[in-house]
Task: structure prediction
Amino acid sequence: MIVPMIASTPSAFRPPGPLPASPLAPYAGPWNARLAAHLLRRAGFGGSPSDIQTAAGQTMNAAVDALIHFPATDSLPEGPELIDNDEGTPIAVPAPLASPMPDATGTDAATSAIVEARKARQMLRRRQELANVTWWLDRMLVSPAPLQEKMTLYLHGHFATASNQKGIYGTDIVDQNWLLRHYALGNWRDLTHQIARDRAMLKWLDNARNVKAHPNENFARELMELFTLGIGNYTENDVRESARAFTGYTFRRRTGEFFFNAAQHDDGSKTFLGQTGNFNGDDVIDIIFTQPAAPKYFAHRLLEFFVYSDPEPELVDALAATIRKNDFNMAPVMSALFRSNVFYSDRTYRALVKSPIEFAIGSYKLFGFTEVAPQTVGVLNRMGQVPFHPPSVKGWDGGAQWLNTQTILARENFASEITTAAAQGKNFLNAAPPANAGDEAQSLTHTILQGDASPASVADLASYLDGRGTSADGMLSGENFEERMRGAAYLTMAMPAYQLS
Amino acid sequence: MQRSRFLIGSLAGLTVTANATDLFAKALAMPALPNVAPGSADDRVLVVINLQGGNDGLNTVVPHGMPNYYRYRPTLGISPNDVLKIDSTIGLNPQLAPLKAMYDKGQVAIVQGAGYPNPDHSHFRSTEIWQTAEPEHYVSTGWVGRYLDEADLPESNLFNAVALAPVLPAVMVGRRVDVPAIAALRGYGLSSDGNVGERAAFATVVRDDRVPFTSPYLATVATIEDHAQRGSEELPKLIAGYSSQATYPATPLGRSLSLAAQIVGSRLGTRVIYVQHGSFDTHAAQKPTQDRLLHELADAVKAFYDDLAAHGEDKRVLTMTFSEFGRRVAENGSRGTDHGEAAPMFVIGGGIAGGLYGKHPSLDALDNGDATFTTDFRSVYATIVEKWFGRPTTGVLAGSFPTLPILA
Result:
């Protein structure tokens, strides 16, 4: 029996007011730095003041074109440093344990040898993990194709797979990451076929163990529930039947390559979503993508990630129609979305909470840093989002889930650290000679927030810059300029607008 | 979807349809914290201990009278001579001696074989199931969060519930009550608060409600930033008057429960405190890891209740443990155990009816190598909501679950 859902998932954060007419028709309104920064935040990871100026100086269409047509990325590192290429073979059991009468006290030499061997392996695995995460964060920061990385991040949350567990080690997750990047704006039906063959996914959702005698339903269920259709668009029987269709989809332990094990495949007849035949997993995926629910499901998830929470059914239907019309080729779909009326409407502007990754990478970009600090992985962990570590196959919920006192403290303390580093480098904080506090406050809120602060807050910032309310350090001057500008930049990043995308 | 349910996720009683300026005025007002009178159902506290990673239930509450236990556990089985016997079948791991002493005083209830139908063997999903109390659906709120929402708590109180964890666990997430997440008191604060000017300016600018844009998240962001700053400043002061009357073990759990006792004894109106302990994910060389963790658990819980009793607070604090799953009945080839199913829960408190509840899972008929659950874990939650907090489970649990006679 299915129990009724209490407190179910719909977001409580749909923007107020009516949906504009022709939401997906091309936007023809004014173009300015504010909207250019909005585009760069949503279709990338934000930008430096000059990135925003460049986009604002183009037409909207040219700015979107520059994102959609990925420039060459040959200059970027080919992948993370390879530290541990052992993808999940069991940790060797030292010889003493093989003795016929093992000592069960747990304190003997054999047990401590296992513990030591595990520690050594775990250390290697952790170092590889750190290299993988840092590699991708750096790529998000400096790639000339930011939308490619943003779509990859979207897909990572959509087909959420976590490494360092379930036998997913070494470069398993990086190989999956390249697959997602390859299909970033490609055909997502094709991507789904490939995901069903991806080694990390085969491990993550146990399909590598899905065999004729004991079908494992894990992948088959999530394929429909979380990847393509959503709950309510299939039955438990469809789960069972499609699990049978995916039996034998596994990988070769030695090479890690996909392998269709015909001996473990159930080649009997299956009835799936109303059709009957001798289906395999690829047939199942093709049938799924003919369901009206499939484009709707992708449309809903895309809108929640790129536009706003809890999108109206009419908007979902409109984007689903675009997806269907383009047969799941995503370049024209995203191109249309980033040029649309709804995308540049007031209801979309600052209507999402920045994810921790957007917050951190956006801050690095703001001040012109070209690599992330090593401690960023720990900082992101405290903020609640580490790449390659989604909390479950459901991915990151986003929205209000990003916000609690501990994660906000982590964000603010990161802002404090990055402004300290920035104040010592060369950037907009110190590019011009000191001006008066009012002008500096105005300028900071324009550069960091595109002016999305109230006059009262700008005045508060000016007061801070002039040292009012503190001991008599005096007004903003050459003496205290670096320290006060750092503090003022930090305070600007503490304003609500900076948490919002 | 009903508009009326569209509440700002983290703040009591404020709907998004309200005027933004009023929201801020309401959210940022700072009335005195309620001083809850002792003795009423309203001042009862629940402490939830999450044993992360899947604790091996069979080596925690040991079925020493079931011959199959030793057959499945040739090296990990705890010798009958070492088991702290409760009866001819059941006993406790010797590392739990302090807990056994509390059991003998009637302060510990053991719910055997807790679990749910069609158990999930993934850490994440099964943790989520225990936290949301929703085995068949993905939901975004936890059962404690929903209880807090239903309990009509004063919205001005920043500490209606507290999660002693680096990230807010799903169990504490509700729609209305904002629960602070606190990894440790040390480091819980704004580094800028040391600077008088930055501190004051921060308090003002985070409340910027006249911004030249609208956003459905604006009030939530402002509220949490404000709560983070004020809460992290106030909490150390509010609990400074409490002096601990027990020696806590120098472990993360010891520190968490010591802080929990301070919060309880300082009477902040806190209803639920979440702490976590682990990791129990013992696929290999299980014994040293589980021994240490169970020892730390029993030591910390004993110190906690000694401390509470010295302050006359032990009868108003109920502690419940859970873990996302038990482990395989048969040990594996690396002296460890893999992910399994049913496992016992402890319910601990000064004023409860201690003893064994439910049936120990059979070791004769296994479900694909796993122990099958005998008590739905939601029965324990229902018992706590109805009998401890005196509230109906409507809006907290989907469906109705029989309560256990642990609480009068």
